Amino acid sequence: MTRKLLLLPLLLTMACTSTEKTEPLGEEWEPYNLVVRHQDHIRFSFPASGFAFEQKDQFVQDVYAALESNAKILGIPEYNEYFKVFFHSSRSEVEKFTGMAAAGIANVWTRELHMAAYTDEESDSTDFVLNPPIIHEMMHLMSCTTWGYPHQNLQWLNEGLATYAADNCNGYTIAEIYRYMLDEGHAYSAADFDRHFYELEEMIGYHQSAYYVECLIEIHGMEKFQEFWQSNHANFEEVYGMSFEAFIEAANERVMRIVPEKPNIDWNEFIKGCF
Ligand SMILES: [Zn+2]
């Protein structure tokens, strides 16, 4: 009883001292304002103002929608792994957290997604990000934590699956974009896919890969896709029973059937990115 009575004044004194003792930050320090939310197995973080802040409820909803649609593609009932999603108010803010000034990055090892969301007005950059690549980055996280990180020479499959999951770039489907690239001679050759994937022009490489992933999944099924994911590009023929070149030929015939007319894509705009 005595101890309890003694403890209360002590706590009150401590509380008073800590508020009184707040000292100004040194010049090298600055406050950093975030709003955070922890829901189910997900930690959300947003800047405390600006476009990303205003859109936070919509983006949280988009994360849940991506969980569902990506799980469906992967053929898993649900995805319950813990992860964190950080939205930032510029690409340079993404760079501070990841080392890369990208619109979106998934770190599969730390289970963190970092995405930029901002208008032109609130950034020094002119390439606003109104639609952060939520489905794309979520698919990297979900596929790589479910099946493991693919072999170095299957980066095209990893990016292709994430791009296929979103299946939309400025209103065009993956198949429509591939049909246009094929007609206009923008598509890479089968041999180019053996090169280091990240050396290819991003908008072409990602969408071409996405169309091949679409064919692999929709024609040959998820079981083989997973087998190939956990294998090696050199084993394509072993897994699919045909050469990569023969597969591409069939994929080209398919796109002519499902997209009978060349879409009217403005290439100079397309190559700038999906917005
Ligand atoms: Zn990606």
Polypeptide structure, described:
The chain is of the alpha/beta class and 275 residues long. The protein has 2 domains: 34-144, Collagenase ColT, N-terminal domain (Glutaredoxin); 150-270, no CATH class. The chain contains 12 helices and 5 strands. It has a 5-stranded mixed sheet, sandwiched between helices. The chain starts with a helix and ends in a 5-residue tail after the last helix. The structure holds zinc ion. The site of zinc ion has 4 residues, from helix 5 and helix 6.
Annotate the secondary structure layout.
Elements: H1 2-20, E1 34-39, E2 42-47, H2 51-54, H3 56-74, E3 83-88, H4 91-98, E4 104-107, E5 112-116, H5 134-147, H6 155-166, H7 174-183, H8 202-220, H9 222-229, H10 236-240, H11 244-258, H12 267-270
Parallel strand pairs: 2-3, 3-5
Antiparallel strand pairs: 1-2, 4-5
Helix pairs in contact: 3-5, 5-6, 6-8, 7-8, 7-11, 8-9
Bound molecules: zinc ion.
Zinc ion is lined by residues 136, 140, 159, 162.
Q: Which characteristics define this entry?
A:
12 helices, 2 domains, binds zinc ion, 5 strands, alpha/beta, Glutaredoxin, 10% strand, single chain
Order of helices and strands: HEEHHEHEEHHHHHHHH
- Roughly what percent helix? 40-55%
Mass-distribution shape: globular
What is the number of independent domains?
Answer: 2
Low-confidence segments, given as residue ranges, are: 1-18
Number of helices: 12
Mean pLDDT: 90
- State the distance separating the first and last CA atoms: 66 Å
Q: What is the β-strand count?
A: 5
Q: What class, by secondary structure content?
A: alpha/beta
Amount of beta strand: 5-15%
